[in-house]
Specification:
Blueprint: H1 3-7, H2 11-17, H3 22-35, E1 43-47, H4 53-60, E2 64-69, H5 72-81, E3 86-89, E4 101-106, H6 117-130, E5 131-142, H7 144-149, E6 154-159, E7 162-171, E8 174-183, E9 186-195, H8 199-208, E10 212-217, E11 232-238
Parallel strand pairs: 1-2, 1-4, 2-3, 4-5
Antiparallel strand pairs: 5-11, 6-7, 7-8, 8-9, 10-11
Helix pairs in contact: 3-4
């Protein structure tokens, strides 16, 4: 079983990452709506939607949003927390609906979880297949060079009475995070593995999918991408008409 199917649906994942900033999500969505020229009534696909943090904000802009995620637990939570959005358990490597959407987004490093880069290409190909001609695609991934440079090897935090010890390391082109959970004497261990992306790799994903790259930026403020300082690699692309 892939590590993400074992981890994402747990209550510990929700505890550890539940504090993610809603203001940050709102800033991301505002930037995407403005820069991509989206308007009320446009159809959007949120790939790797998690519990719907971004989908909610897109819906507030009047977009008709569909969210997909491989985690049944995340989708179940999203349906409760964001009932105005249609959520589905779906593997993003497969096309959800052909040429239906005005925009597709894949945010907060939702690619790079397996050792096979073909999985990532299949996901971007599926995004391209879901777009209408002329539709916009936004792909947000971590900048591997900055993650490597600023890696905190170990820290601890308390969330909801649960102690999390986080240990991080680099294995080749992969960032590994070991998560040790101490919950009232019960211990659990989980692992996250994500590819340390480069801008060249991201551009290649876009181009091989038949999409036209428009810009590379940092995020959520769309400043020009600088490989030495940008925390994110955000690719802005469109499907040729």
């Amino acid at each position: 079983m892939a590590w993400y199917t074992d981890w994402f649906g747990t209550r510990y994942y929700k505890l550890l990452y539940g504090h993610r900033d809603e203001d940050d999500a709102r800033a991301w969505v505002n930037t995407i709506v403005q820069k991509a020229g989206l308007k009320k009534g446009d159809e959007m696909l949120d790939m790797g939607c998690g519990r719907g943090r971004h989908a909610l904000r897109f819906a507030e802009h009047g977009l008709r949003v569909t969210g997909i995620d491989i985690s049944e637990g995340s989708v179940a939570d999203a349906r409760v927390e964001v009932p105005e959005v249609s959520f589905h358990v779906h593997d993003m490597r497969e096309v959800f609906a052909k040429e239906r959407f005005d925009a597709v987004v894949c945010l907060f490093t939702s690619l790079g979880y397996s050792n096979d880069r073909n999985d990532d290409q299949r996901a971007v190909n599926a995004a391209a297949g879901a777009l209408k001609p002329g539709g916009r695609f936004v792909l947000d991934l971590l900048n591997g060079a900055i993650v490597r440079k600023d890696l905190i090897q170990e820290d601890c935090q308390m969330e909801g009475g649960v102690r999390f010890t986080l240990q991080r390391r680099v294995e080749g082109d992969t960032i590994v995070k070991d998560i040790h959970v101490d919950d009232k004497g019960a211990s659990h261990r989980f692992t996250e593995r994500v590819h340390a992306w480069t801008a060249e790799e991201v551009c290649a994903l876009i181009e091989r999918a038949g999409l036209q790259l428009d810009a590379l930026t940092n995020g959520p403020e769309p400043t020009t991408f600088d490989p030495l300082t940008a925390e994110r690699i955000v690719a802005w692309a469109h499907k040729p008409a």
